[in-house]
UniProtKB/TrEMBL annotation:
Protein task: Component of the signal recognition particle (SRP) complex, a ribonucleoprotein complex that mediates the cotranslational targeting of secretory and membrane proteins to the endoplasmic reticulum (ER). SRP9 together with SRP14 and the Alu portion of the SRP RNA, constitutes the elongation arrest domain of SRP. The complex of SRP9 and SRP14 is required for SRP RNA binding.
SRP9 domain residues: 5-53
Protein name, entry field: Signal recognition particle 9
Provenance organism: Phocoena sinus (Vaquita)
Keyword list, A-Z: Ribonucleoprotein, Signal recognition particle
One Gene Ontology cellular component: signal recognition particle, endoplasmic reticulum targeting
GO biological process: SRP-dependent cotranslational protein targeting to membrane
Record-linked InterPro entries: Signal_recog_particle_SRP9/14, SRP9-like, SRP9_dom
UniProt xrefs under Gene3D superfamilies: Signal recognition particle alu RNA binding heterodimer, srp9/1
GO molecular function: 7S RNA binding
Keyword Hydrolase: no
Amino acid sequence: MPQYQTWEEFSRAAEKLYLADPMKARVVLKYRHSDGSLCIKVTDDLVQWHLRYYKILNLRNVIVGDLET
């Protein structure tokens, strides 16, 4: 299961996976308060993409910046 390091790479791969078959694609978000990490997983049961943030302070800037473009 590949794990991406940047939001840009992950969002492109997730969008491609979703556009291939929107009825099978799903997203799972898991937040762990103990270490402040957020794990985002996109899957269609055949392929899984992961992105993990350990310090989510900049997460809002990344996501809002992506939504504006």
